[in-house]
Design a protein that fits this description.
The chain is of the alpha/beta class. It has a single domain, classed as Diaminopimelate Epimerase, Chain A, domain 1. The chain is built from six helices and four strands. It has a four-stranded mixed sheet, with helices on both faces. Helix 2 packs parallel to helix 6 and helix 5 packs antiparallel against helix 6.
Length: 152
Amino acid sequence: MKASTFFTREQQDLIRQAIIKAEDSTSGEIRVHIETGIEGDVLDRAAWIFRKIGMHHTKERNGVLFYMALVNRKFAVIGDRGINEKVPDGFWDEIRAVIEKNFSSERFTDGLTEGIQIAGLKLKEYFPREKTDINELPDDISFDDTYKAGMG
């Protein structure tokens, strides 16, 4: 199992289109990162990736990362400081629940696309898209095929 080949080209296009559609109504920036596998805590790794791919450089600090570690069967959804300062406790719970429900039935594309759609709708309330808004981050999925089996 490799991150870069887990989703078909068509599935990757569906995920990318969900990102574009979600960002159409909010200034929030959404990224998806898939890794073959990780060692350690999924939230720690997601936070590290968040910074590694430059998501903390958005003007309003309103980036959201959907992160998956395939071999570990773990995922995380995290937002930047600008989001977490404005939204109520439990803001991410509905998104995580939708993803978890889909993933538990092996519907990974549906889980990501539905989670992304909900994130876009929820972010619109706190970060509406302005006419001058620019796309600050790429909409493409990023991948990391690295994984050292048996080391974690």
